[in-house]
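User: Can you fold this complex?
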Amino acid sequence: DTEVTQTPKHLVMGMTNKKSLKCEQHMGHRAMYWYKQKAKKPPELMFVYSYEKLSINESVPSRFSPECPNSSLLNLHLHALQPEDSALYLCASSQAPPNTEAFFGQGTRLTVV
Amino acid sequence: GQQVMQIPQYQHVQEGEDFTTYCNSSTTLSNIQWYKQRPGGHPVFLIQLVKSGEVKKQKRLTFQFGEAKKNSSLHITATQTTDVGTYFCAGAGGTSYGKLTFGQGTILTVHP
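Assistant: Here's the predicted assembly.
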């Protein structure tokens, strides 16, 4: 299984809502990532987990809260988002150490209204 | 911090023409990776280059890593309509362990 599965595929949420994005991989990868991608722009790294520990936080606002419950799962908890947070959120995984081939999920298209 | 510049931003070609995109890093990289993202899709890994001066080929695609490990290129020979998409380079290295820095991407359009 060489897939990274993200749910939901689409999400519309209000600025006062709390929601979570989920990501799952069964490739035995020990590095997992959250990226944010705006239209016609490259993916921007948000967080890196290595062996289930947060190793990189790219100064992401606290309204985004990552969680890695186990080596296969990665969540991104969303709270009090702004319309400018609307984007494609991509999860990826790779072998540890990081910086090897990354497998991306199909992404969650998030719209904040 | 580490920056990776990629040019051109857009490239329109006729089917059968060649295509090249270039990446330059502000710092020496430990490796560089290339990804392709189809319209509406997600990035898909193409290749990783690690060694100085490395050249790798995948069918019509040729990837190069510069001697100083600060630049790279992707060349597609005789483009096909299936080559349409955005090609990103992504550099890793230095003190940014675990961090891939993506170039801005080159959006390739192939006219039949």
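The interface with chain B takes residues 31, 40-45, 48, 50, 55-56, 58, 90, 97-107 of chain A (CB under 8 Å). The radius of gyration of chain A is 13 Å.
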